[in-house]
Amino acid sequence: MKNTDLNQTGEMAAVLFCFPHLQNSCPRTLRLSVIRVAMYAFMLTTILMTVCGNLLVIIAISHFKQLHSPTNFILISLALVDCCLGCFVMPFSMLRTVEGCWYLGKHFCRVHSSLDIMFSTVSILHLCLVSIDRYRAICHPLQYKTNVSTLNVIIYIVVIWLTASTFSFGLVFSEVTTENFKTLVLLDSCIGSCVFICGKQCGITVFLVAFFIPGTVMSCLYIKIFHVARKHARVISDRMATVACHELKNRVSEQRERKAAKTLAIVMCVFLLCWVPFLCASLVDPFLNFVTPVDVFEALFWFGYFNSTCNPVIYAFFYLHFRKAFKIIIAKIFGLKITSTTLFSS
Where in this chain does the record put each G-protein coupled receptors family 1 profile domain (predicted)? Predict the structure, then answer.
């Protein structure tokens, strides 16, 4: 009997709890110190790159009047989404992932989960708006110049923010408890967990609203855009011999529009690549009685967060004017000499 008691006591001592003074506390995830330090280093680097990179995009578009265009105002709002994700969501997710516990209480857990869903939904709706903008600019250029204004774009952006915030906060704080449409943020089994659980119908709704419908719209529009762009390219190649000066400028403008569409399509593909694994897991998991381990979900979360880090890198790599703007801003921050402040060559 004594040996059995000692073994049980030893096993209990080996388990760390999130809140040792509370009876119903969750067990804390045990990790080696080296692994914890490596996780913190990786996640902190990702957060800093996300915040600093997207701040560069916001400052560049705000500061340079040459970048003031309807499309870039959508991009500045998208950068604001990614920056807010890096400031208000990712640091707390980092603590939860590494420590294996949620120390910030039930109410802030709901706010955190709501912001997480909101920023993800706002991101894909922004990308959907960008695809619509590029479709109108390339497929209907004359109508685009007369009908699309900065004010219209700002109204669309405000509607997206309001719609996504209403959807996400309503989903989390409504506490719907229908058997199929169940939404929970805290696991009832123990204290110290912050896990958003979505039932079958809830998972399908989130998948459709936050991914499938806007993703399908984007895919169809970009297929149409590239079909029209190839058509324009063939027409331009046929007229190369007799191109006039003003036609040459139009051709350069069209090439710029097509390159913008191509780059933004890459942004969309990176977004889908980063978020599809998590969204698919969230959709399938309720039908499998929630068998996916929490650590797997945390890894998928961070894979999705990494999308916010990638966007500024894509802009800098594919957009010459963004690259120039970033160099000018960084040079001013560090007091370096600037040879030129022109973004576009005349």
Answer: 53-315
